[in-house]
Structure formats: structure tokens, C-alpha cells
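Colleagues,

For the teaching module next term, I've prepared a clean inverse folding example: a structure given as C-alpha cells, and then the sequence designed for it. I'd like students to try predicting residues themselves before seeing the answer, so please don't circulate the second half yet.
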């Protein structure tokens, strides 16, 4: 009878331990299960995408600055009376 009780307790403890381990595994980030070579590939691809995005941004910025320089024409300052009215608002 004691043996049966011990076996029952052991089974319960095993089940509890199994549940605890499942919870721990469920909380682990999925990246842990990705093989190292795949992680390297993903990192390299991410780096490439960042570089392309940076190049696009840089080239777009240069193009915009070029456009701004071409379109820039000095404008005369508004008459002093106009500025006083703006300040009153």
C-alpha cells in the first residue's frame, strides 16, 4: 500500500515537473530554436537590408538637397508694418 502511494506521488511530481518544463520552454524566445547558420544568414540579410535602406535614404537626401539648392531664390523681407501686425496676433 505504501508502495502504491509512493508511486502515485511520484507520478504527480513527474506531471508537475513536466508542466513546469513546458511552461519554461513556451516562454523561451523562438530564436533559440533556430540553428546558428540560419541565424547568421538572417543577420547578414538584415545587415544588407539596412545598408540598402541607408543608401536609398542618403541618395534621396542628396537629391532633395540638390533640388532645394536649385529652387532657392532669396525673397525680400516683409515690410515692417506687416511684422508688427503678426506679433499682435
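(Answer key — instructors only)
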Amino acid at each position: 500500500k505504501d508502495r502504491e502511494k509512493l508511486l502515485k506521488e511520484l507520478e504527480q511530481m513527474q506531471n508537475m515537473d513536466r508542466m513546469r518544463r513546458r511552461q519554461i520552454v513556451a516562454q523561451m524566445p523562438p530564436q533559440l530554436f533556430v540553428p546558428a547558420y540560419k541565424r547568421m544568414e538572417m543577420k547578414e540579410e538584415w545587415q544588407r537590408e539596412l545598408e540598402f535602406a541607408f543608401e536609398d535614404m542618403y541618395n534621396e537626401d542628396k537629391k532633395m538637397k540638390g533640388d532645394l539648392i536649385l529652387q532657392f531664390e532669396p525673397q525680400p523681407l516683409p515690410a515692417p508694418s506687416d511684422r508688427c501686425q503678426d506679433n499682435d496676433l
